[in-house]
Each structure stands twice: as structure tokens, then as C-alpha cells.
Design a protein that fits this description.
The complex is a heterodimer of chains A (59) and B (177). With 59 residues, chain A is mainly α. Helices cover 68% and strands 0% of the residues of chain A. Chain A contains 2 helices and no strands. The longest helix of chain A has 26 residues. With 177 residues, chain B is mainly α. Chain B is built from 8 helices and no strands. Chain B is flat, with a radius of gyration of 18 Å. About 8% of the residues of chain B have low confidence. Classes of the chains: A mainly alpha (59), B mainly alpha (177). Chains A and B meet through helix 1 and helix 2 of A and helix 2, helix 5, helix 6 and helix 7 of B.
């Protein structure tokens, strides 16, 4: 395994560790339907994805 | 002991998920052999079959990340509070978790394109998510809103289809990683 691959693995762990609390929170509160405010927040997050550099189609 | 239990209060889910991920990560790195019984004890029995399907392909960390999300989806399949529609709750959970999973995967692929871990197949899956991922999420959201407004069988069927599409996309993505 190369150094770059090890860095990539560490990066994946870091990204996952950032996402995990958000996902668990979503599922914990998932026992109820989202409120209108929570729905608006989710819609805003989805709408904002297209502006993120890693979501640009590129080549 | 009491202090330990107090400390763990509210952190048990995080701990179990972290244990599951570390266990799978170690297995993929060859540090130990993953035992399906242990996955079952951790409450991830369903993951054992999913992982078995991945045995013939090269697995790497993004696959583990996706496993983590699916694993969390499994953990999250608990009871729905009275007065709440399970179809809506499930749809909202799947949409939110799919969004976070797609975002995590694309972020990782974008940052690590120069490494051997991002193969052509991985890049192709990422590009497909970039092309259509937002549309899939928006479709699920629109179907959820339509069903919440008018809880008809037709709207329910549309919503369940949109949710199944998102679930299938995450499962399909695993095959390429």
C-alpha cells in the first residue's frame, strides 16, 4: 500500500467520522416525521449540494 | 460503574456503530477474520449477507463507509412513534442518509483521485451520482411532500418507489467499490 493510499484511507475515516453523528441524529429523530422546519432544512441542504466543488461533474 | 454508565448514556449507539466499523475495517485489512456471529451480536446481522456479496470484489474504505451508512440504516429501523406514518418516517430517513452517504463518497473520491484506490469504476459511479444524485434526492422529497399532503395509495406507491431507488443506488454503488 502506498503512502497516498494510506492518506486516502485516513481521509475516508475522517469524512465518515464527520458524517456519522449527522446520520445517527437523523435516524434517532427518525421515529417521528420531520417538522416543516426540519423539512426546509433538508431541502436547503440538498439544494446546496450542487455548489459544492466535489459535486461538480467536471471530467 | 455508575459513572461509566452515566458517561455511556446517550453514546451507546455511537459506540456500537464505531465498533462495527472498526471490526469491518480490521477484517478488510486482514487483521482478523470477520465472523458473521459477531456482526449478529453487534446487531448487524443483515450486514453479514451484504458483506458476503462483496467478498469477490476488492473492497476499500469507501465501501466500508457505505457499509457504515447502510449499517446505520439497519440500526435505525426501530419503532415509529405513535401518530407518525412509517412510510413517511422511512422515506425521510432514507433521503437524509442517502444525501450524507452520496456527499461523503463524492468528497472522498474528489480528494483522492490520484491514488490507486479511486479506480475507473469508482470514478464512474461517482460521476453517475454527480449527474443524477440531486435529482434522485429531489424526486424522493417531492414524493414525500405529495404523500404528506394527500395520503393516497397512488402517492404512497410513488414514494415507496422513490425510496427503493435510493436504497438500490447505495447497494449498487457497493458492487463497484
Amino acid at each position: 500500500m502506498t503512502g497516498a493510499e494510506i492518506v486516502a484511507i485516513v481521509d475516508a475515516v475522517l469524512i465518515l467520522s464527520q458524517k456519522l453523528p449527522v446520520v445517527i441524529k437523523a435516524l434517532k429523530s427518525g421515529a417521528t416525521e420531520l417538522t416543516p422546519e426540519q423539512e426546509a432544512e433538508l431541502d436547503a441542504k440538498i439544494a446546496a449540494l450542487k455548489d459544492q466543488p466535489h459535486w461538480k461533474l467536471g471530467e | 460503574m455508575k459513572e461509566l454508565l452515566t458517561f455511556l448514556d446517550g453514546k451507546k449507539t455511537y459506540l456500537i456503530v464505531a465498533l462495527g466499523i472498526v471490526y469491518l475495517f480490521g477484517g478488510d485489512q486482514g487483521w482478523w477474520v470477520v465472523n458473521e456471529n459477531i456482526l449478529g451480536i453487534l446487531g448487524f446481522g443483515g450486514l453479514a449477507s451484504a458483506r458476503a456479496g462483496m467478498a469477490k470484489v476488492k473492497t476499500n474504505v469507501p465501501a466500508i463507509a457505505l457499509c457504515g451508512a447502510i449499517l446505520v440504516l439497519g440500526v435505525g429501523c426501530k419503532g415509529v412513534a405513535p401518530g407518525n406514518d412509517p412510510v413517511v418516517v422511512r422515506a425521510e430517513q432514507v433521503t437524509e442518509v442517502s444525501m450524507e452517504t452520496f456527499d461523503a463518497f463524492l468528497r472522498w473520491e474528489y480528494r483522492n483521485r490520484d491514488t490507486g484506490l479511486v479506480t475507473g469504476d469508482v470514478h464512474a459511479v461517482a460521476q453517475e451520482i454527480r449527474r443524477s444524485g440531486i435529482d434522485w434526492l429531489v424526486t424522493a422529497r417531492e414524493a414525500t411532500k405529495a404523500y404528506k399532503q394527500h395520503r393516497t395509495e397512488a402517492n404512497k406507491a410513488n414514494l415507496e418507489t422513490a425510496v427503493r431507488v435510493l436504497e438500490a443506488l447505495i447497494r449498487d454503488a457497493q458492487k463497484y467499490l
